[in-house]
Every structure is written in C-alpha cells, then in structure tokens.
Amino acid sequence: LYANMVFQTKKMTAATSEECVALANADLDHIAKGVYALCESQEEVLQQTVNFNINVARKQMSDTGACVLGPDTVSWEAKNQFSKEPKTLSLPKFSLGSTWLGQNADAKTPSPVVDLVRELVGGTCTIFQRMNPEGDMLRVCTNVQTADGKRAIGTFIPKMQPDGTENATVKAILEGKPFRGRAFV
To answer: For the whole model, what pTM was predicted?
Structure first.
C-alpha cells in the first residue's frame, strides 16, 4: 500500500508539474504578445507625433520665408559629431526669406523657426546646410543642446559613419526623401 501511495504521489507530482509548466508557458506567450502589441501601438503613436511635428516645422519655415543661400559667406568651426574632428569652412549665409539664421549658440537667445517649433510641439528641431559635395550636413540652427547647455550649431553629420557605412539620415536627405528613424545626436 505504501509503495502504491508513493507511486501515485510521484505520478501526481509529475502531472501537476507538467500542467504548471504548460500554464506558465501559455501565460508567458500571452504576456509576450501583449507587450509586442503595446510596442507596436506606441511606435504608431510616436510616428504620428513625429509626422505632426514635421508638418509644424515645415509650416514655420514656410511662414518665415523661402530658403536662400546668399552671396555673402560665413566662417564655421565645424565639429564632426562622431569623431569630434574639427573643420574650418566657409559657407554661404543661410536665410529663410530675409531672416539670416545666424550663428546663435546661446540657448537663451531666440533662434528663428527651431525655438517656435519647440514651443508649439515640444520637439527638437534642427536646420541643416549641406557643407560639401559629399553631402556632410552642418547644423546651422537648432534647439538641440550640447552637454554644456549651448546650442549644438557647428556640429555636423558626416555622410560616412565611423564604421564606414553611409549615414541613413544624410542618405535620405540627399535623395530628397524624409528620414524617419533613430538618429545619433
């Protein structure tokens, strides 16, 4: 009788253990599907927000005036955002209509378009100027700040990344397409 009870107990323990593992796996699968659906939903909401913010930025630029590269040039001490390598260059003055974007590194001094975009939608905004035939892009006006609290003007996104691949942001811009995705700033 004792041997039969031990046998039955072991059999019940094994069955209970199998059922618990099956329930746990089913629950984990359910949880994973729920987390995935939540991530998809969040991505959709974020993309809608980005699209809205881009439309606000386009409207602000349009209201300020057409992009104009003037006959006068401006000297820049540009810094590669990846390697920190400096470059001295001279570029045409970039204006929107009659408003020169300037070289405003002071976060407390207003800059056209980018600060209004932040005020309206709370997002970061940068206006780039192509700095060479390769397609490197210089931040000439931005509300993005450096670690020391200054505007990140004068930093540039090189067309080629440190690993030798083409920068997706610059690639899209050079192809006349919008870029939507993560970008190192």
So the answer is: 0.78
* Residues near 37 by beta carbon (within 8 Å), at least 6 away in sequence: none
Give me the pLDDT at residue 8, please: 73
Residues 6+ apart with CB under 8 A from 100: 70, 93, 94
Compute CA 143 distance to the chain's CA centroid, rounded to the nearest angstrom.
Answer: 14
Q: Which of 80, 75, 112, 111 is closest to 92 using CA atoms?
A: 75
Q: What is the mean pLDDT of the chain?
A: 89
Distance, in Å, from the CA atom of 14 to the CA atom of 145, rounded to the nearest integer, reads 61
- 3-state secondary structure at position 2: helix
Tell me if 135 sits within 8 A of 156, measured CB to CB. Answer: no
Helix 114-121 and helix 2-64, axial crossing angle in degrees, nearest 10? 140
Q: For residue range 147-165, what is the model confidence (pLDDT) as tens digits? A: 999 999 999 999 999 999 9
How does DSSP classify residue 173? H
Residues 6+ apart with CB under 8 A from 141: 94, 101, 102, 104, 111, 112, 113, 114, 126, 127, 153
